[in-house]
Specification:
With about 220 residues, the chain is an alpha/beta fold. Helices cover about 30% and strands about 30% of the residues.
């Protein structure tokens, strides 16, 4: 019988502890029909996961006891920052889901000149990231950043040095990946309609030549 995985947004430090998350407890009771004695796998984003048994289940919370702890080995080899031009709501939600499943560490929505959409439901995106992490077996949650313009993002200096700017006029991506082996990488993907000429110049201005790979 499959044991389901659940994320806790508080550190797991004790072998016996209370789970105050009412939404999670409601899910256990009403969706999964768990009872006292049901087993779950919990993780808190630290890279560890915990096999636990439910010892108390109430309307307002639950108590669990840790039976086993182990290090999750599903850690990506690359610390990948995905910088994506704003696209339609449903499509961006799919981006977050699939990026999480593939092991992306950061997702940054970028407001571009050709973005048709100007805002996103950030709480929903973060919930999607949590659910995708639970389903895919990873032991952490990607950081879903607030919307930012390309210039502001590049000027912040928070991105990895190595950057890949996907561009229809660029070099074939497979050729680049054969020679690149970066442990920290930022990948830029434009919105519907692609990057504007101004944005391409902005990217070139704020990136050293050795750090840039133009690909498609």
């Amino acid at each position: 019988m499959r044991i389901h995985r659940f994320y806790l947004n508080t550190p797991i430090s004790d072998d016996v502890f209370d789970v105050p998350d009412k939404e999670l407890v409601h899910q256990w009771r009403s969706v999964f029909r768990y009872n006292v004695g049901s087993e779950v796998i919990l993780f808190d984003g630290s890279g560890m996961e915990y096999l636990a048994i439910i010892t108390s289940l109430r309307n307002s919370g639950a108590s669990v006891e840790v039976l086993e702890k182990k290090k999750n080995k599903n850690k990506p080899k690359t610390n990948l920052w995905l910088c994506v031009g704003l696209i339609k709501k449903d499509n961006f939600e799919l981006v977050v889901q699939k990026a999480t499943e593939l092991g992306v560490s950061h997702v940054i929505p970028v407001l571009c000149e050709r973005s048709e959409k100007k805002n996103l439901n950030m709480d929903r995106l973060r919930k999607i990231a949590v659910e995708a992490s639970e389903q895919s077996g990873r032991a952490d949650i990607p950081v879903i950043h607030e919307i930012v313009s390309l210039r502001e993002l590049l000027e912040k200096g928070q991105l990895p040095k190595d950057k890949m700017f996907l561009n229809m006029d660029g070099q074939y991506i497979a050729d680049v990946l054969q020679i690149e082996n970066s442990k920290n990488l930022a990948v830029f993907i434009g919105p519907e309609g692609g990057w504007s000429e101004t944005e391409e110049k902005e990217f070139a201005l704020h990136s050293t030549p050795s750090a840039v790979s133009y690909t498609h």
